[in-house]
């Protein structure tokens, strides 16, 4: 993970893009890339979405990678450890949505 972070940082640094990678811009870019993920699935049936072609799967991987890079850069602006934040959020979710009330339920209780 640290090696990938270094690659991402070096890529932007070599291109002198730091001046553009402010939190607002990173958040907006991340959402734009997330919308490109949605476009892949937009008109597919659930069955079609479950069995993407190799080319659509490759496209999905690229778009998810774009989302990931912007997410990592945005988190880095605030020195947020995403793994730690995800663990903390899952602990909160476990309390908010106990298994005995939410198992097999789509509606929040």
Task: Give a nutshell description of this structure.
By secondary structure, the chain is an all-alpha fold. It has helices spanning 2-14, 23-41, 46-50, 54-77, 82-96, 99-102.
Keywords, separated by commas or semicolons:
single chain; 109 residues; mainly alpha; Helix Hairpins; globular
Q: What's the main sheet like?
A: none
Task: Describe the global form.
Answer: globular
Distance between the termini: 36 Å
CATH architecture of the largest domain: Orthogonal Bundle
Q: Name the CATH superfamily assignment of the largest domain.
A: MazG-like
CATH class category of the largest domain: Mainly Alpha
**What portion of residues is helical?**
over 70%
**Strand percent estimate:** under 5%
Mean pLDDT: 95
Structural class: mainly alpha
- CA gyration radius, whole angstroms: 18 Å
User: Any idea of the CATH topology of the largest domain?
Assistant: Helix Hairpins
Unreliable spans are none
The total count of helices amounts to 6
Number of spatially distinct domains: 2
DSSP E strands, number: 0
Give the SSE order as H and E letters. HHHHHH
């Amino acid at each position: 993970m640290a090696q990938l972070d270094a690659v991402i940082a070096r890529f932007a640094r070599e291109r002198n893009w730091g001046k553009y990678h402010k939190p607002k811009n990173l958040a907006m870019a991340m959402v734009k890339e997330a919308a490109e993920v949605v476009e892949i699935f937009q008109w597919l049936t659930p069955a079609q979405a479950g069995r993407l072609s190799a080319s659509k799967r490759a496209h999905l991987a690229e778009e998810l990678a774009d989302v990931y890079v912007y997410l990592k850069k945005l988190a880095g602006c605030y020195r947020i450890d995403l793994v730690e934040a995800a663990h903390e959020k899952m602990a909160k979710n476990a309390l908010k949505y106990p298994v005995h009330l939410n198992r097999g339920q789509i509606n929040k209780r």
